[in-house]
Write a structure and sequence with these properties.
Elements (H helix, E strand, L loop, with lengths): L1 H20 L5 E8 H17 L3 E7 L4 H6 L3 E4 L9 H18 L3 E5 L1 H10 L7 E4 L4 H5 L3 H18 L5 E4 L2 H9 L7 E3 L21 E5 L8 H13 L5 E5 L12 H7 L5 E5 L4 H6 L3 E4 L8 H8 L3 E5 L4 H4 L6 E4 L4 H12 L2 H18 L2 H19 L7
Parallel strand pairs: 1-2, 1-4, 2-3, 4-5, 5-6, 6-7, 8-9, 8-11, 9-10, 11-12, 12-13
Amino acid sequence: MQPSLASSVDRMIVNLMTFADAKPPRRLLYVVNEDWAFLLNRLPMARAAKKAGFEVHVATRVNEGAAAIEAEGFTLHPIPLRRGGTSPLSAMRAILALRQITGRIRPDIAHHSGLQCCVYGSIAAFGRRFPYVSALTGMGYVFTSATWRTRLLRAILKRLLPALLDRPGDVVLVQNPDDRAALIDLGISEKCIVLIPGSGVDTDALQPLPEPDGPITYGFAGRLLTDKGIRALVAAHGIVRSQGMETNLLIAGNPDPANPASVSMEEVNEWTQRPGITWLGHVKDIASLWGRCHFAILPSHREGLPGSLMEAAACERAMIATDAPGCREIVINDQTGLLVGIEDPKALAQAIAKLATSPALRARYAKAARELVVSQLSAKIIGEQIVRLYEDTTAARSGPKLPF
């Protein structure tokens, strides 16, 4: 009997130790306004989190990205979120849906992406213990427009954001120093702000491409917004063509009706009637775009850290961008490309002509651009940084563990 009792005690101890070691996976909830935005901007870090052992959940408005999100092994939670909407009823529906989701899955940490989701997500998390990361990327239309409406909204946010985002143990995530300074100016405590440059780019999948044959071609990839500088780029292209240079402009992207700064479809159709302009719409295979271009252009007013330029750099392309927040983190003047002023078509045309007529300069910038993303901005490097942030944040918030 005694050996049998001893064996039973041993098995009990082993079972207790196994139970203690078999911890449930940590649950991570991403809150993003659109499924395509998650796939475009958050996928590398979500993959890194899954690889690190997190159970990844995604709460978003579902359009056509459900299959792609679920194929990654993530759990999808549709929410009735209307991007760009200001209806209090619509906001309450989204907040209630998020509160129900967090109550059901009990996340260990949440990652709210974009201003709208940061506000809704933090309200939905009121009174709950899990920490959240508020990712304010690029600061959006509210911070790039000078209308009376956006000035009023900024004044409201200056009172609202510190109350929502400055919760002890939570983190506010930015992608460049300018956004950090803007948030401090809005009243966010500097000690809770963390800077991680971008979401990372897959430098294994995106490899250096040879320059195409034929006329000099430059490409733009992004939503067709005034804030992205698309009108200035079209004007600059016209200047270059008027100077006798047979250059081509490829535009990859669509208008965004939910954004007040969007151009109209009629305007896009008018552009395609001009010499040398081709509109491609949404391009799924970004490498195919940069394979057709000699260099990339993004004359944006403000960015977090532009994914389109990081992808162009990974494909070893020289770049032109505006000397604006986010853009100057990837386009380092006379190293990886050229910087020009915001809404300055003449200066943009001069930069285009300079790169168009200098293969050696393009090659030097392109090589340095590829080296920059490989050494500092790859999905692996950024993924490690974001996983470390999740782990540190959850560890700081977790309560004491019971000893066995």
